[in-house]
């Protein structure tokens, strides 16, 4: 077990590409840290530098307070789980899991005991003598985990370990990874693309963009208090809705109507020295069908009325999509997020607003619906820098 | 029903084609084998199956050092050349498949050039050089040119195999605590084994069958290999027709190749079916 510190770590590839810039992360002993960000933002590069598979161009990596920049991977005592699992195809499951122990020159009896122990934790006992090529995806994934845990390393590094599994299996494995890490208490750095994994697995989440750390914090904190437009748009699924707005006389003039600002937000905005033109963000779950609310509750927010474009009923809730007239907010951050998410799941794409309503809502496609939203949950961003003007971290 | 008859017809067509190909390929070989079992008297009777079977020809060739010594030379020279070419080829191919080093394209280009170079044009200069260096009519005198001409082949085949091995396996081995040498020996080499055996077979056959260098760069039994020695075969007396003994020798020298191929083919197939690369 170990504490891992990245101190202004930078990676410049030989072709000049700057994959990671001045990364500062302190990972405490036993902590589970998630690295997330769009494709190509340097997650794998960062992980490989901790592993020792990539050289560190600048800055310092410390494992347990000792500089590790120059250490070979085998001297760092860190185990890694690869996206492709990287199981040795010519060895049985048993030999795959025993490989690190054999390299460490452990005697046969202890190797056997350790492998069997790991196999029973991962429910692989009956597959020990099979070849990896004959196993299912989930079983292979567990063998890869097994190979990492047998030798009780100082830390685990995992690079999108579940991304080759189908959705259901991914859900199951996610739970077992989480349990396993709690049980072993080993420091873990986990790279993922997946919102759910990022929100549920980690103690802390690191959001990366173009090799630069955007924000580090607990999943809930990043969700409630995103430091900037990028984090706000990246964390959360479906993502936050963004609309351009302008601040006028303590109110917000937006395509959703003129919204009076509450005291809390007004104070934050004043303290942040906000520009006149801003981007307002609001999460889908902060909307509600106005017809379902009591009068008192309604007063705490604002409403707008619009026809429902598409209504998706999930059983436990309903997603209603609306179109607003004004051009939607568009900044470099939002475009990048849109590109990463693909056309389907674009934050504030086109001019669609995504809202999550109670299952009991009577809204129907094509009908005009009065929608209420919680104005205290509004987040305002500076369009030029992306800074969150309502950040109270 | 229609399907049934059409597949039967298809099968018959293929069977006929297969037989033609096999017969075409094997008749000369079988003819030589048949000649080697004929007695001197019935040699020219034109029968495909010998009337009288005899092992006399085999007994004769193994009775003289005229055949045994070249056989030893052939086995020694071809094996050593194969071993060295495959080991060197493995290192070069690994570098080509895995590393980006300056001059990589040049290296590939030059090795291709060597493979295309007409060997006959090199025989005279090689003869002169080997004379000057004292390599003429020695084992190294043949092993060296064999390695040179086998290397491009070895590098090509091997780098294709190395490229198939996922890079991540080596990274995984390093993370598991292996030194680069251990990673190569315990993970990469076993996975490359089918490629290594394939290459070994090709190089061995090349060295074993070579006639041009063998005839030009040797002069005595000290290093003459079987293909060259066959050309010098005479019967027990000057006036005797050596056809029978030549045939017997020809049959004998194909045996090591067949053994070699069969032995390694088992390994190749085993390697491929164990899911060597995919997985
Ligand atoms: N070997 C390399 N040489 C040059 N540039 C590289 C190399 N490997 C990665 N890069 C660049 O570094 C950046 C970060 O790559 P990295 O693989 O770390 O991204 P990632 O966040 O893991 O992406 P993904 O989610 O797609 O796996 C990318 O822009 C990539 O093009
Ligand atoms: Mg990656």
UniProtKB/TrEMBL annotation, chain A:
Short name of one Pfam family: ABC_tran
PROSITE patterns: ABC_TRANSPORTER_1, ABC_TRANSPORTER_2
Record protein name field: Carbohydrate ABC transporter ATP-binding protein (CUT1 family)
GO cellular component, one term: ATP-binding cassette (ABC) transporter complex, substrate-binding subunit-containing
Gene3D superfamilies hit by this protein: 2.40.50.100, Nucleic acid-binding proteins (2.40.50.140), P-loop containing nucleotide triphosphate hydrolases (3.40.50.300)
InterPro entries listed in its UniProt record: AAA+_ATPase, ABC_transporter-like_ATP-bd, ABC_transporter-like_CS, ABC_transpr_MalK-like, ABC_transpr_MalK/UgpC-like, Mo/tungstate-bd_C_term_dom, NA-bd_OB-fold, OB_MalK-like
Gene Ontology molecular function, alphabetical: ABC-type transporter activity; ATP binding; ATP hydrolysis activity
Transport listed as a keyword: yes
Transmembrane segments: none
Biological processes, Gene Ontology terms: carbohydrate transport
Record-linked CDD domains: ABC_MalK_N
Residue span, ABC transporter domain: 4-235
Lineage: Bacteria, Bacillati, Actinomycetota, Actinomycetes, Pseudonocardiales
Organism: Prauserella shujinwangii
Protein's UniProt keywords contain Flavoprotein: no
Swiss-Prot/TrEMBL keywords: ATP-binding, Cell membrane, Membrane, Nucleotide-binding, Translocase, Transport
UniProtKB/TrEMBL annotation, chain B:
Cellular localisation: Cell membrane
InterPro entries in the cross-refs: BP-dep_ABC_trans_perm (IPR050901), MetI-like (IPR000515), MetI-like_sf (IPR035906)
Predominant location: membrane
Membrane topology category: Multi-pass membrane protein
Annotated GO CC locations: plasma membrane
TM segment ranges: 12-33, 75-95, 107-127, 139-162, 183-208, 246-264
Alphabetical UniProt keywords: Cell membrane, Membrane, Transmembrane, Transmembrane helix, Transport
Entry similarity comment: Belongs to the binding-protein-dependent transport system permease family.
Listed name of the protein: Carbohydrate ABC transporter membrane protein 2 (CUT1 family)
Lineage of source species: Bacteria, Bacillati, Actinomycetota, Actinomycetes, Pseudonocardiales
């Amino acid at each position: 077990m170990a504490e891992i510190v990245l101190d202004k770590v930078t990676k410049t590839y030989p072709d000049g590409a700057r994959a990671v810039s001045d990364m500062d992360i302190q990972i405490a002993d036993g902590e589970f840290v998630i690295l997330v960000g769009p494709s190509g933002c340097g997650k794998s590069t960062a992980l490989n530098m901790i592993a020792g598979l990539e050289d560190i161009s600048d800055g310092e990596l410390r494992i347990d307070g000792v500089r590790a920049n120059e250490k070979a991977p085998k001297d760092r005592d860190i185990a890694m789980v690869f996206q492709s699992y990287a199981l040795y195809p010519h060895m049985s499951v048993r030999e795959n899991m025993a490989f690190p122990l054999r390299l460490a020159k452990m005697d046969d009896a202890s190797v056997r005991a350790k492998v069997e122990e790991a196999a029973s934790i991962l429910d692989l006992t009956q597959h020990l003598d099979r070849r990896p090529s004959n196993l299912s995806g989930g079983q292979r994934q567990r063998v890869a985990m097994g190979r990492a845990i047998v030798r009780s390393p100082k830390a685990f590094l995992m690079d999108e370990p579940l991304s080759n599994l189908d959705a259901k299996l991914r859900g199951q494995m996610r739970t077992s990874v989480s349990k396993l890490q709690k049980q072993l208490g080993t420091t873990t750095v986990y790279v993922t693309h997946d919102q759910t994994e990022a929100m549920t697995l980690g103690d802390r989440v690191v959001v990366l963009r173009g090799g630069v750390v955007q924000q580090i914090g607990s999943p809930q904190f990043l969700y409630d208090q995103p430091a900037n437009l990028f984090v706000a748009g990246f964390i959360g699924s479906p993502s936050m809705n963004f609309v351009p707005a302008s601040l006028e006389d303590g109110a917000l003039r937006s395509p959703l109507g003129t919204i009076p600002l509450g005291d809390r937000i007004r104070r934050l905005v004043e303290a942040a020295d906000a520009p006149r033109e801003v981007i307002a963000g609001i999460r889908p779950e902060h909307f509600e069908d106005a017809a379902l609310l009591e009068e008192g509750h309604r007063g705490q927010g604002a409403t707008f009325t619009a026809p429902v474009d598409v209504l998706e009923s999930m059983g436990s809730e309903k997603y209603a999509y609306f179109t607003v007239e004004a051009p939607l907010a568009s900044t470099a951050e939002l475009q990048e997020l849109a590109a990463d998410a693909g056309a389907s799941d674009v934050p504030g794409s086109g001019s669609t607003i995504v809202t999550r309503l109670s299952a009991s809502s009577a809204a129907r496609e094509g009908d005009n619906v009065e929608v209420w939203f919680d104005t205290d949950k509004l987040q305002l961003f500076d369009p030029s820098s992306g800074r969150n003007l309502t950040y109270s971290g | 029903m229609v399907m049934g008859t059409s597949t039967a017809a298809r099968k018959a067509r293929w069977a006929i084609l297969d037989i033609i190909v096999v017969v075409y390929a094997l008749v000369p070989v079988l003819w030589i084998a048949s000649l080697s079992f004929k007695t001197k008297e019935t040699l020219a009777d034109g029968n495909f199956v010998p009337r009288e079977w005899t092992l006399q020809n085999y007994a004769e060739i193994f009775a003289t050092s005229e055949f045994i010594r070249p056989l030893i030379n052939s086995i020694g020279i071809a094996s050593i050349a194969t071993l060295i070419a495959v080991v060197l080829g493995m290192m070069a191919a690994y570098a080509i498949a895995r590393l980006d080093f300056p001059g990589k394209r040049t290296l590939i280009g030059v090795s291709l050039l060597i493979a295309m170079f007409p060997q006959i044009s090199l025989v005279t200069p090689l003869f002169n050089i080997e004379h000057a260096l004292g390599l003429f009519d020695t084992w190294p005198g043949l092993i060296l040119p064999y390695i040179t001409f086998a290397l491009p082949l070895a590098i090509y085949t091997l780098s294709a195999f190395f490229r198939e091995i996922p890079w991540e396996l080596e990274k995984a081995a390093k993370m598991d605590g292996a030194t680069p040498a251990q990673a190569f020996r315990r993970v990469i080499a076993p996975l490359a084994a089918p490629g290594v055996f394939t290459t070994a077979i090709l190089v061995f056959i090349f060295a074993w069958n070579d006639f041009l260098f063998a005839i030009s760069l040797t002069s005595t039994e000290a290093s003459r290999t079987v293909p060259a020695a066959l050309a010098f075969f005479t019967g027990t007396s000057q006036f005797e027709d050596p056809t029978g003994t030549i045939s017997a020798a020809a049959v004998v020298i194909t045996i090591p190749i067949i053994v070699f191929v069969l032995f390694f083919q088992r390994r190749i197939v085993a390697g491929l079916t164990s899911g060597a690369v995919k997985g």
